Amino acid sequence: MKKIIFVLFLIVFICIGYIVFFENKNSSITNSAAIHLSRINEAKKVINSNSKYNNKIAFFIDMKIPSGKNRFFVYDLKTDKIIDKGLVAHGSGSETGVKGKLQFSNVPNLLSTSLGKYSIGNHYKGKFGKAYKLYGLDKTNNNAFKRDIVFHYYYDVPYNEKDGYICNSYGCPMVSKRYFERIAKIIDASESNILMCIYY
User: Is there a contact between 101 and 135 (Cβ–Cβ < 8 Å)?
Assistant: First the structure.
């Protein structure tokens, strides 16, 4: 009888272990698949070329994902895992009139989101409160500083995912105050510039 109980206990233990391992494996795969490998490699190339960039953390924003869903990703470059995610608004000038289809521009006064890699600079107090200056590193976003494109929060941006779409910005990557405060802690704790990559 004791042998039967022991065998049953062993089978249950093995099954639980298998389920936990399988779920963790699937979670890891989903985690990595959320950002295309080519985007990660592009960011790492820039980061490795200059010691002024943070080589542990990078931010990725996937504009293909609807604005009502999490599309701002905090990525751990050492473990190759997403460690946080949240909602982020795009510029009103990026709307095309077709839901889910966006356009992008680097031209001043168009209120559009610009694609490309950004270096996050110092924070300052602007009309929306604390904000971080952004410096465009590509031809597609090299007017960012001139256009006053910054990373900031806005009260109308929801914290949780929702069906449909959220409010638009004037071209800035704009998040909720609650999420901004979490990201700001990462930026402020960094001794080097963090890279933000916006793509479509």
Answer: no
Residue type, 27: S
Type of residue found at 113: T
pLDDT digits (tens, 9 = 90+) for 49-105: 999 999 999 999 999 999 999 999 999 999 999 999 999 999 999 999 998 899 999
CA atoms within 13 A on the CB side of 81: 8
* Helix (H), strand (E) at residue 7: helix 2-33
Count of Cβ atoms closer than 10 Å to residue 185 Cβ = 10
147, two tokens: 């256009």
Q: Which of 159, 151, 158, 145 is nearest to 130 (CA)?
A: 151
CB-neighbour burial class of residue 135 (10 A; exposed 0-12, middle 13-18, buried 19+): middle
- Size of the chain, expressed as the number of residues it contains: 200
Q: List own/partner pairs for 127-133 with CB under 8 A and 24 or more apart.
A: 128/152, 128/153, 128/154, 129/153, 129/177, 130/180, 130/184, 132/184, 132/187
Residues sharing a CB contact under 8 Å with residue 69, sequence separation 6 or more, in sequence order: 87, 161
User: What's this model's pTM, rounded to 2 decimal places?
Assistant: 0.84
